[in-house]
Design goal:
Strand order of the largest sheet: 5-2-1-6-7
Number of strands: 7
CATH superfamily: 5'-nuclease
Number of domains: 1
CATH class: Alpha Beta
Largest sheet: 5 strands, parallel
Distance between the termini: 40 Å
Order of helices and strands: EHHEHEEHEHHEHEHHH
CATH architecture: 3-Layer(aba) Sandwich
Structural class: alpha/beta
Radius of gyration: 16 Å
Number of helices: 10
Amino acid sequence: MSDPPLLLDTCVVLSLCATRRVKDILDANPGPFLIVDAVLRETLYLHVVVDGVREKEPVSLDPLLATGTLAVVAPETEAEFQTLIDLSLALDDGEAMTCAIALHRGYRVVTDEKKTVRLMGNQIPIIGTLDLIRTWADEVTAPASLLREVLAAIADRGYIPGPDHPHRAWWDQMLGG
């Protein structure tokens, strides 16, 4: 029996895109991987530093969608729409839609948003970006230099796991911090 699909939140998609290895990372993990249409609309650009200036770099998920690495889903039932409305009072659109669909379809969620984990963690299975990165690293036996590059890209995008995160010691070890 295979695991239920994983719904990726916007923050995770952006962190994975920042690594420049999103397809490799997803391919090394058991999927399937889905995003809701709100996440597709929210995944617009990464902040990158070019010649010392922070700029916006457009993100396109089209290659991942074309290869089937990612698929887009949307609410379909009245129950999903009602849960989406209820959750949108506390969560951003992409997170609310992701969690509403996960609740009703028995899917898992990949997010690093603490508020989402706090509000939904007892109701749906949640994993984070670093769970995907660690599985990929183990699967491809990634050298430490590559792991540092990947984790540094995620940190540059703005995600750094909190001190109580289960992978924080590994993060610090890999980044030499």
